[in-house]
Protein backbone atom coordinates (compact mmCIF):
# COMPACT_ATOMS: atom_id res chain seq x y z
CA UNK A 1 0.00 0.00 0.00
CA UNK A 2 1.32 3.43 -0.90
CA UNK A 3 1.01 5.89 1.93
CA UNK A 4 -0.03 9.47 1.44
CA UNK A 5 1.96 12.22 3.06
CA UNK A 6 0.92 15.46 4.65
CA UNK A 7 3.64 18.00 5.38
CA UNK A 8 6.20 15.24 4.72
CA UNK A 9 4.82 12.96 7.45
CA UNK A 10 2.98 9.69 7.05
CA UNK A 11 -0.72 10.11 7.62
CA UNK A 12 -1.95 6.67 6.69
CA UNK A 13 -1.08 3.11 7.61
CA UNK A 14 2.48 2.04 6.91
CA UNK A 15 3.15 -0.60 4.29
CA UNK A 16 3.57 -3.52 6.66
CA UNK A 17 3.21 -4.38 10.30
CA UNK A 18 6.98 -4.64 10.66
CA UNK A 19 7.37 -1.16 9.12
CA UNK A 20 4.81 0.21 11.57
CA UNK A 21 6.50 -1.41 14.56
CA UNK A 22 9.98 -0.22 13.56
CA UNK A 23 8.76 3.34 12.88
CA UNK A 24 6.85 3.45 16.17
CA UNK A 25 9.75 2.11 18.22
CA UNK A 26 12.29 4.45 16.64
CA UNK A 27 10.18 7.57 17.07
CA UNK A 28 9.04 6.64 20.59
CA UNK A 29 12.70 6.32 21.56
CA UNK A 30 13.42 9.73 20.04
CA UNK A 31 10.43 11.37 21.73
CA UNK A 32 11.05 9.82 25.15
CA UNK A 33 14.79 10.38 24.84
CA UNK A 34 14.25 14.12 24.63
CA UNK A 35 13.41 13.98 28.33
CA UNK A 36 10.34 16.22 28.35
CA UNK A 37 8.68 15.47 31.69
CA UNK A 38 5.13 16.13 30.49
CA UNK A 39 5.47 13.94 27.41
CA UNK A 40 7.19 11.13 29.34
CA UNK A 41 4.50 11.21 32.03
CA UNK A 42 1.74 11.10 29.41
CA UNK A 43 3.33 8.08 27.71
CA UNK A 44 3.55 6.36 31.12
CA UNK A 45 -0.08 7.22 31.90
CA UNK A 46 -1.18 5.87 28.52
CA UNK A 47 0.63 2.60 29.22
CA UNK A 48 -0.80 2.26 32.74
CA UNK A 49 -4.36 2.95 31.59
CA UNK A 50 -4.40 -0.43 29.82
CA UNK A 51 -3.14 -2.47 32.79
CA UNK A 52 -5.65 -4.80 34.39
CA UNK A 53 -7.89 -3.41 37.10
CA UNK A 54 -11.65 -3.64 37.55
CA UNK A 55 -11.58 -4.18 33.78
CA UNK A 56 -9.04 -6.64 32.46
CA UNK A 57 -6.36 -5.71 29.95
CA UNK A 58 -8.21 -7.53 27.14
CA UNK A 59 -11.37 -5.48 27.73
CA UNK A 60 -9.40 -2.24 27.90
CA UNK A 61 -7.61 -3.03 24.62
CA UNK A 62 -10.99 -3.74 22.98
CA UNK A 63 -12.22 -0.37 24.24
CA UNK A 64 -9.07 1.24 22.86
CA UNK A 65 -9.76 -0.35 19.49
CA UNK A 66 -13.33 0.98 19.39
CA UNK A 67 -12.13 4.46 20.33
CA UNK A 68 -9.41 4.29 17.67
CA UNK A 69 -11.93 3.32 15.00
CA UNK A 70 -14.25 6.16 15.99
CA UNK A 71 -11.35 8.64 16.05
CA UNK A 72 -10.12 7.24 12.72
CA UNK A 73 -6.52 6.80 13.86
CA UNK A 74 -4.95 4.08 11.71
CA UNK A 75 -1.77 3.89 13.80
CA UNK A 76 -3.88 3.50 16.94
CA UNK A 77 -6.03 0.87 15.23
CA UNK A 78 -2.92 -1.10 14.29
CA UNK A 79 -1.51 -0.85 17.80
CA UNK A 80 -4.75 -2.04 19.42
CA UNK A 81 -5.28 -4.86 16.90
CA UNK A 82 -1.82 -6.18 17.75
CA UNK A 83 -2.44 -5.83 21.49
CA UNK A 84 -5.90 -7.42 21.23
CA UNK A 85 -4.43 -10.37 19.33
CA UNK A 86 -1.75 -10.71 22.03
CA UNK A 87 -4.54 -10.73 24.63
CA UNK A 88 -6.30 -13.59 22.83
CA UNK A 89 -9.18 -11.73 21.17
CA UNK A 90 -11.04 -14.07 18.82
CA UNK A 91 -12.15 -13.22 15.31
CA UNK A 92 -15.78 -13.15 16.51
CA UNK A 93 -14.83 -10.67 19.25
CA UNK A 94 -13.00 -8.52 16.70
CA UNK A 95 -16.11 -8.51 14.50
CA UNK A 96 -18.26 -7.35 17.44
CA UNK A 97 -15.80 -4.57 18.21
CA UNK A 98 -15.66 -3.53 14.55
CA UNK A 99 -19.48 -3.37 14.53
CA UNK A 100 -19.59 -1.18 17.63
CA UNK A 101 -16.94 1.16 16.21
CA UNK A 102 -18.84 1.44 12.94
CA UNK A 103 -22.18 2.14 14.62
CA UNK A 104 -20.71 4.73 16.98
CA UNK A 105 -18.52 6.39 14.35
CA UNK A 106 -20.78 6.12 11.32
CA UNK A 107 -20.01 5.44 7.69
CA UNK A 108 -16.87 7.60 7.76
CA UNK A 109 -15.27 4.72 9.71
CA UNK A 110 -15.64 2.29 6.76
CA UNK A 111 -12.24 3.02 5.13
CA UNK A 112 -10.57 2.55 8.52
CA UNK A 113 -12.55 -0.63 9.07
CA UNK A 114 -11.20 -1.98 5.78
CA UNK A 115 -7.64 -1.19 6.84
CA UNK A 116 -8.31 -2.69 10.29
CA UNK A 117 -9.46 -5.95 8.73
CA UNK A 118 -6.43 -5.98 6.42
CA UNK A 119 -4.13 -5.39 9.39
CA UNK A 120 -5.85 -8.15 11.38
CA UNK A 121 -5.32 -10.53 8.47
CA UNK A 122 -1.63 -9.60 8.50
CA UNK A 123 -1.39 -10.13 12.28
CA UNK A 124 -3.11 -13.53 12.04
CA UNK A 125 -0.72 -14.66 9.29
CA UNK A 126 2.20 -13.83 11.58
Entry keywords:
126 residues, AhpD-like, two-stranded antiparallel sheet, disordered N terminus
Structural commentary:
By secondary structure, this protein is mainly α. The chain has a single domain, classed as AhpD-like. Helix content is 71%, strand content 3%. A two-stranded antiparallel ribbon has the order 1-2. Strand 1 and strand 2 form a beta hairpin. The longest helix has 17 residues. The two termini are 18 Å apart.
Give the CATH class.
Answer: Mainly Alpha
Which structural class do you get from the secondary structure elements? mainly alpha
Count of structural domains? 1
Residues in helix, %: over 70%
Architecture per CATH nomenclature, i.e. the level-2 architecture: Up-down Bundle
* Number of DSSP E strands: 2
What's the pLDDT, averaged over the residues?
91
Note the gap between the termini. Answer: 18 Å
What does the overall shape look like? globular
Element order, helices and strands?
A: EEHHHHHH
Number of helices: 6
Rg, alpha carbons: 15 Å
CATH fold descriptor:
AhpD-like
Beta-strand content: under 5%
Superfamily at the CATH H level? AhpD-like
Q: Show unreliable segments.
A: 1-11
Largest sheet: 2 strands, antiparallel
> How is the largest sheet built, in terms of strand order?
1-2
Tell me briefly what this model is.
The protein has helices at 17-33, 37-49, 57-71, 74-86, 91-105, 110-125, and strands at 5-6, 9-10.
Write the layout of secondary structure elements.
Blueprint: E1 5-6, E2 9-10, H1 17-33, H2 37-49, H3 57-71, H4 74-86, H5 91-105, H6 110-125
Amino acid sequence: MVTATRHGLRCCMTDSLSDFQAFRARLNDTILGAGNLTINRFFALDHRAYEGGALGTKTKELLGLVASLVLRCDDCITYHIVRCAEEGVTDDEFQDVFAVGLVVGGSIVIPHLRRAVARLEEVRKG
